[in-house]
Structure of Electron transfer flavoprotein subunit alpha/FixB family protein:
Amino acid sequence: MNKAKVNQEINLADYNDVWVIAEQNEGKIHPVTIELTGEGRRLADTLGKRLAVIVSGADVEDEARKLLHYGADTVFYISHPLLKDFSTEGYALSISELILEKKPEIVLIGATSIGRDIAPRIAGKVGTGLTADCTKLEVDETDHKLLQTRPAFGGNLMATIVCPRNRPQMSTVRPGVMEKAAFIPNPDGRLEIFIPNLKEEDIRTVLMKKVKSDRKKVNLIDAKVIVSGGRGLKSPEGFTLIRALAEKVNGEVGSSRAAVDAGWIEHLHQVGQTGTTVRPDLYIACGISGAIQHLAGMSESKYIVAINKDPNAPIFKVCDFGIVGDLNEVIPAMIESIDKNGSLEI
Ligand SMILES: Cc1cc2nc3c(=O)[nH]c(=O)nc-3n(C[C@H](O)[C@H](O)[C@H](O)COP(=O)(O)OP(=O)(O)OC[C@H]3O[C@@H](n4cnc5c(N)ncnc54)[C@H](O)[C@@H]3O)c2cc1C
């Protein structure tokens, strides 16, 4: 087995620097890596520490080097032929090995399917805690504790969690929550290669083949405009109206969980605490009441338009423009206005 093992007694002062675990697939870097690099830079600057981004793979040195353009002082490229394809054991073991050797103080991982898979395993191997799905990170400058905030008790309150006795302090953060780091044309960080002590027998799974899903991609995270429907649509056919408006405004279709739970639309479209976190320029919520778990995923949108027939619906407290009315009348009127004027007049 690999050398990675659980820390027992640790000296907190031995731990330094902020790390971001990058995610790549065939050399393509997941956008959450750039978001976490921006957040990692902010935390490192607050603490007066260095920022490192960790990339694992085989033959992806050029892609790893490109991450220096987002403000990392160091990119550690964990390079090994056995890391060519993602495997839970291979990635978790080699990242843990590097953590045990270099002792970072903070480690951030994207809460993607891969991040959610490896983060708890890494935390277990290096003997520390993990706070999943954080929505806000701050540091206490006096004792360097990472204040990790996340929704708790079904999203009804926000809990701030600390990891006082173990290191590193590890958090996962969902894609879309943090702002992307800006591109730096002439970075001065450097790339270091790390060869992990990985053997074939450490990886108990074999990738037989990759099958690409033929499902239409839903890209809520990068969408500039999202038109979302909720229980107020009353039936799956209600989404025909939502799709028609989304098409007119070049937007993606989102939904509340109530619409997903009713089987009217796939979970891929769900916005909120247990769906996707989005921050488009324009979010149009149609027949959505504005439950706290829905707001958790869209309240950072630049402009929010709400259509709801109940003037007391909580969504009206967060929206920039509210339309009290029946969505079956309001949405066709909006589409007609766009057809007539070439733009939306509310
Ligand atoms: C742990 C946990 C996680 C959750 N995660 C999520 C999540 O990720 N995302 C999420 O969305 N929810 C989530 N929820 C569920 C959440 O609490 C709400 O139940 C859900 O958001 C309600 O969806 P809705 O607004 O579509 O439905 P409702 O709350 O039923 O609201 C429907 C709205 O439609 C309006 N309406 C009805 N007819 C019309 C009409 N003809 N025209 C205009 N308006 C009309 C009504 O006035 C009402 O305000 C979660 C809950 C829990 C406990």
User: Anything to note?
Assistant: Residues 85 and 209 are 11 Å apart (CA to CA). The first strand starts at residue 16 and ends at 21. The chain has two domains: 12-202, 225-341.
